[in-house]
Amino acid sequence: MCDWCEKYGDGYERWYFNPANYARRLYKIRKEEAEALGAEANPQAAGGMSVVGRDFLEARERGDMAEVERVKQQIESAMWLTHCGQVITLEEALKIVDIMYPISLITCTCRRSMEGLPDEENFTCMGMGAGMYKWERWPDTYRGGVHFLTPDEAKEVLAKLNKRGLVHSIYTFGTPYLAGLCNCDYPDCAAIRTVIDLGIKILWKGHYVAKIDPELCNGCASCVHRCQFRALSFVPSRNKAYIDQFQCFGCGLCATECDQEAITLVERASLPALANVW
Amino acid sequence: MLPTITVNDEKCKEPISCRKCLLICPTHVLGLGTDVGPQKFREIDPSHFIVRAVRFDKCSGCMDCVKVCPQNAIQLSFSGGDAR
After folding, report:
1. Residue A257 φ/ψ, nearest 5 degrees
2. Which of A57, A125, A236, B7 has the fewest CB atoms within 10 Å, measured from its CB?
3. How many CB atoms lie within 10 A of CB A94?
4. Alpha-carbon gap, residue A126 to A103, rounded angstroms
5. Contacts of B43 in chain A (CB under 8 A)
6. At A75, which helix (H) or strand (E)?
């Protein structure tokens, strides 16, 4: 079972469907904890949104796996308490915007940090919950301003971002307080990049695994560019798409693009070898 | 092999509007940060933005960032020496 659902699900099908995890009460706890940790952190100050320093890359380079593992665990345990995420499908994202309030469309701090993307091109991130009312305190975090959205407007935006090929994921700000609904891609999303390039799990795989029906797949390959996790490839000799289910994060972007409905999402929990692959 | 990549902040004035190096790097090694940290109630002035190499493990040594910089602010070398 997903650790997060186990700890914070409270009987709901998913932990991110549990309204208690969006509660203002948790936002206040988050503030106290963040301040106790001395973490009034500006992610931009770190430069390029990296959670690892050069030390980690050097240890990897010289093959010091014990050190790599030590730092990895240190980062993961800190991030799991403060700021981590899980991939969700479009359908799940649409459901979430009916639970949380308020919803705001903001600029993506990762893309600003990796591309210097101008604000007007960068409205792909959603901030939610009580903290958003105080956005003006941190004008730099919210460069470009904030657009508050109705649930219907948010759904429209999410569908458009999905069409563009961006992966939806939900993030904690002081776990389990959920306050970010990100729409991301490799390599400029810090979380996707960190998990894919460095194997540091600050972004967890989602509750689904994509599966191709080889009878229905017509080999058009339109799904292939949709995968941000290197799980999807094309097999010319069979003229079919191929999904590495152990690498699949279950975002469903390949499925929403397939005209033939050849890709379905299977519950991770239903696959014994994948049930605990997060 | 990890490179040494340095950016001269005196020469690199407003990377958030220039961003040539960020966009040319084939493997997105460089990142943008600020030299002032969190600023409550204040938007950070563009002059406080800085470029730093972050994803050293992905640098191929193509030197495109060095060549594209209009201010000649980036130095990149492997094994300590100045490769320029």
Report:
1. -90, -20
2. A236
3. 17
4. 7
5. 139-140, 143
6. helix A65-82
Residue B82 lies in a domain: no
Range of the domain at B57: 3-77
Angle at A270 (CA atoms; ends A265, A273), nearest 5 degrees? 105
A127 closest CA partner among A182, A189, A206: A182
Structure token digits, residue B84: 């320029």
Three-state DSSP class for residue A107: strand
pTM over 0.90? The answer is yes
CATH number for the domain including B23?
3.30.70.20
Q: Where are the beta strands (DSSP E) in B1-84?
A: 3-7, 30-34, 49-53, 74-78
Strand segments, DSSP code E, in chain A are: 85-87, 103-107, 123-128, 147-149, 167-172, 178-184, 203-204, 208-212, 232-235, 240-243, 263-267
Nearest residue, CB atoms, B33 vs list A46, A139, A197:
A46
State both tokens at A99. 């639970």
CB of A42 closer than 8 Å to CB of B48: no
Per-position pLDDT tens, chain A of length 278? 899 999 999 999 999 999 999 988 887 666 565 554 444 443 444 456 678 888 999 999 999 999 999 999 999 999 999 899 999 999 999 999 999 999 999 999 999 999 999 999 999 999 999 889 999 998 988 999 999 999 999 999 999 999 999 999 999 999 999 999 999 999 999 999 999 999 999 999 999 999 999 999 999 999 999 999 999 999 999 999 999 999 999 999 999 999 999 999 999 999 999 999 99
In a domain, B84, yes or no: no
Q: Is residue B83 part of a domain?
A: no
Tokens read off for A76: 């993961």
Query: Which residues from chain B sit within 8 angstroms of residue A54, using beta carbons?
Result: 2, 56
Does a structural domain hold residue B35? yes
Give the count of alpha carbons within 13 A of A276, CB side only.
Answer: 1
**Mutation choice for A interface testing from B36, B55, B56, B58 by most A CBs within 10 A:** B55
Q: Number of structural domains, chain B? A: 1
Domain boundaries, chain A: 3-204, 208-270
